[in-house]
């Protein structure tokens, strides 16, 4: 188990023990409705209600655990347990399970969290018939955004990554040639022809084409200079 997960569990455990009665009251609200899936707004709504109903609870407003709930993406409730999926920053997920009555805290792996989620649906976990898909090979070389500014700007993020990768060495640009060759219309190459085999040839051809086009009027038919 990673150090960050252990730190997260230790931090939650410490803050729960500091305000034991207050958090038992809060967590009891989460489990009062029985098993289910709580959305982020559900978790925070209960916090707001308990703060409004009891002034003695206001001390929780700045508590680290309540702050952690702002990163929560969902919570699985299987009384007396509440398992919370936290995303403290893009690309980073952590999972903790809290016993609402004993305030014991455990860190969960992804597999353990999904097992807990399966129990919510099926009532039990049966690993004998568990369907498991290993998607890691697809992610091994795929870039992962780690900055909030990248969220919603996936195309820009990938363009920057690919540009950096391609221009580190010219051999990395070979896939670009293959990509340009695929563009055809009615069997005729639209971007480059089969005479260009290397990036250096493409560069010299582009320079030559630019020189030719600079001397041609904008309204000149393509057929007039097609074979130049």
From TrEMBL:
<dbReference type="InterPro" id="IPR056735">
    <property type="entry name" value="SUS_N"/>
</dbReference>
<comment type="similarity">
    <text>Belongs to the glycosyltransferase 1 family. Plant sucrose synthase subfamily.</text>
</comment>
<protein>
    <recommendedName>
        <fullName>sucrose synthase</fullName>
        <ecNumber>2.4.1.13</ecNumber>
    </recommendedName>
</protein>
<dbReference type="InterPro" id="IPR012820">
    <property type="entry name" value="Sucrose_synthase_pln/cyn"/>
</dbReference>
<keyword id="KW-0808">Transferase</keyword>
<feature type="domain" description="Sucrose synthase EPBD">
    <location>
        <begin position="153"/>
        <end position="227"/>
    </location>
</feature>
<dbReference type="InterPro" id="IPR056736">
    <property type="entry name" value="SUS_EPBD"/>
</dbReference>
<dbReference type="GO" id="GO:0005985">
    <property type="term" value="P:sucrose metabolic process"/>
</dbReference>
<keyword id="KW-0328">Glycosyltransferase</keyword>
<feature type="domain" description="Sucrose synthase N-terminal">
    <location>
        <begin position="10"/>
        <end position="118"/>
    </location>
</feature>
<dbReference type="Pfam" id="PF24862">
    <property type="entry name" value="SUS_EPBD"/>
</dbReference>
<dbReference type="GO" id="GO:0016157">
    <property type="term" value="F:sucrose synthase activity"/>
</dbReference>
<dbReference type="Pfam" id="PF24861">
    <property type="entry name" value="SUS_N"/>
</dbReference>
